[in-house]
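Per your request, structure below.
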């Protein structure tokens, strides 16, 4: 299983900055098809803040994660769980 704690910490840090209930932010790492998949769970009322208008915030989170992953020669995906 891939282990990328620095990428997991990055996702958590960014999500905590966006939400009203930071204590409910959970980031879990999985491995799928050679890529690290980070599953982000937030409080139900914070879901809109993490996704953003027309998914812009979610897209930006994925872009930052992808850029950081390329620095450590890894593939990373972000899934936002409802």
């Amino acid at each position: 299983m891939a282990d990328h704690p620095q990428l997991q910490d990055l996702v958590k840090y960014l999500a905590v900055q966006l939400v009203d209930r930071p204590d409910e932010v959970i980031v879990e790492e999985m491995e799928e098809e050679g890529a690290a998949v980070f599953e982000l769970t937030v409080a139900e009322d914070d879901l809109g803040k993490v996704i953003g208008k027309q998914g812009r915030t979610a897209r930006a989170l994925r872009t930052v994660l992808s850029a950081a992953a390329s620095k450590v020669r890894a593939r990373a995906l972000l899934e936002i769980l409802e």
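The two ends are 24 Å apart (CA to CA).

Regards,
D.
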